[in-house]
Amino acid sequence: MDLKRQQITLGELWDNPRSRAVFQKRVPLLAKHPVKGAARTVTLEQLADFLSAWVPAAMISGVIRDLEKL
C-alpha cells in the first residue's frame, strides 16, 4: 500500500478494509477509540509521533510494515 511517505490520513486507512484490519489486529484499542472519527485527518506520521510516548517503537514499526505490505 502506498502510505504517501506516511502522509496518508487515518480516514483513508480506516476506509480501506484491509488496512483497517491491520489496526484492529495490532492496535485494537485505537480501532475502537471514541475519538476515531475526529482523527480522520490525522496523518500516519502524526499518529506514530503521538503513540511513541505510550507504545513501544516496535509496535509502531510493525503496523507501518504491515500496511506497506498491503
Account of the protein in words:
This protein has 70 residues and is mainly alpha-helical. Helices cover 60% and strands 0% of the residues. It has five helices and no strands. It has helices spanning 10-15, 17-26, 28-32, 44-51, 57-69. Helix 2 (17-26) runs antiparallel to helix 5 (57-69). The longest helix is centred in the last third of the chain and has 13 residues, at 57-69. It is globular and about 25 Å long. The model has no long low-confidence stretch (mean pLDDT 90).
N-to-C order of helices and strands: HHHHH
Q: Portion of residues in helices?
A: 55-70%
Major sheet size, sense and barrel closure: none
Query: Quick check: average pLDDT?
Result: 90
Structural class based on helices, strands and sheet pairing: mainly alpha
| Strand content range | under 5%
Low-confidence stretches: none
Total number of strands? 0
Sum up the overall morphology in one term: globular
Q: How many whole angstroms does the radius of gyration measure? A: 11 Å
Terminal CA distance: 5 Å
Q: How many H/I helical runs? A: 5
